[in-house]
């Protein structure tokens, strides 16, 4: 959050998102007020990153592959629900995901996943 060092308040969503991502309001304020830097160990400690990888590309590809084995409809709905729930009440988030899941029931993803699970296979 270096903008403060050139006379600006961060204006691309950092000030709005970083406190929610990290849950560490005092450290976020310190970084935002000073324009200070932090390394990978602290990034992990404050929840800014979920892991530290020796081989970032291999780790990213592995994660992408694991995500891709799931229903695209379910992954998209999960992503939308997580983003929506950041700024809404639990009740609103539950209503939003219920609407998504009602629509997801109209796709072939759920029957395909259930059939694969019953055969102890992965869905195609």
The averaged pLDDT comes out at: 91
Backbone shape: flat
Strand content: under 5%
Most strands sheet: none
The arrangement of helices and strands along the chain is HHHHHHH
Q: Tell how many strands the DSSP assignment holds.
A: 0
Radius of gyration: 19 Å
For the record, give the distance between the C-alpha atoms at the N and C termini, rounded to a whole number: 43 Å
Catalogue the unreliable spans. Answer: none
DSSP helix fraction: 55-70%
DSSP helical segment count = 7
Structural class: mainly alpha
Give your account of this protein's structure:
The structure is a single chain. It is flat, with a radius of gyration of 19 Å. By secondary structure, it is mostly helical. The protein has 7 helices and no strands. The N and C termini lie far apart (43 Å). The relative contact order is 0.07.
Summarize the structure.
It is built from seven helices and no strands.
């Amino acid at each position: 959050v270096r903008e403060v060092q050139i006379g600006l308040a961060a204006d691309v969503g950092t000030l709005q998102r970083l406190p929610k991502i990290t849950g560490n309001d005092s450290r976020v304020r310190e970084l935002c007020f000073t324009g200070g830097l932090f390394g990978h160990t602290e990034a992990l400690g404050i929840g800014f990153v979920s892991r530290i990888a020796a081989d970032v590309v291999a780790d990213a590809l592995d994660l992408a592959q694991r995500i891709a084995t799931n229903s695209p409809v379910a992954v998209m709905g999960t992503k939308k629900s997580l983003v929506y729930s950041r700024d809404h009440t639990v009740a609103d988030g539950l209503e939003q995901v219920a609407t998504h899941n009602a629509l997801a029931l109209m796709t072939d993803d759920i029957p395909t996943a259930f059939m694969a699970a019953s055969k102890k296979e992965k869905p195609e």
